[in-house]
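Readers outside the structure-tokenisation community will struggle with the description of the input data as it stands. Showing the layout once, in full, would remove most of the difficulty. For illustration, here is how one protein appears when written out as sequence plus structure tokens:
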Amino acid sequence: MSYRHHSRSRSPLTALRALFASLFACLALVLPAHPAGAIEGGDQRFAEFLKNQGTFCLPDGEGGCQEIAPGVPNFLVWSDLDPDSCAVVDYAGLAAEAIRQQSGGAVRLGTRVTGTVTETPLPDGRSDVRIRLHAKNALTYVVQGCDWLNGPPLFGRFITEVVAGKRAALGNAQLDIRFTNETGVPLPDILQLLIEPLEGQVPLSMTFKSSTKGPLREAFGVPDGTPGKADVHTAIQFDDPDNRTEEIRLTRQR
């Protein structure tokens, strides 16, 4: 039994709306500079990039920031639109740090984030930036309907469940993103880059892959806790939105 979806034929506006509909909103809570799972082998620019994740405020229209997942800063959530489901994969360690704080240090997931930054100067004074990120022991869960708090869970455990003592589904993830940036300026929060790019910032491409073993849930059509696996794959060429893949695959394991 599995869910699969490929999307390669949307208009640019539809594609962007689909992407932005799959984002965590931001939290007013200020978390420490480095999320749970310190950088291993990362250079100073990657450390800067990781520190800036979760800092973008997605306006709520009333002068504040939207809170879709209380206690967790904003980060990208990956969608699969047929059927309507979304995957939360803690690629930047933000959920892991929130869980550590909310549990008073009792729950530590051991999330580790490493990566590299390559910056190639362009003739116009900007740089072509490529960031490769690798996350180990990243909390992962999948919900039907993309309601992070109350939607029927298909795979894994909610953040609140993990704080309460349930075992988290932990997997590995790889993010590869390219964009232009003014040379020498701070590297952006990915949400800020995609939603409100600053002068000189242009998203070029992004790929994401993750694989996680953990419990399937009753909404998937099996007894709760049945061994399963969640594979997530997203690939986007921003100058050609029709060249886009979104897939969440859930499978039962024996």
Observations:
- The two ends are 12 Å apart (CA to CA).
- DSSP finds five helices and nine strands in the chain.
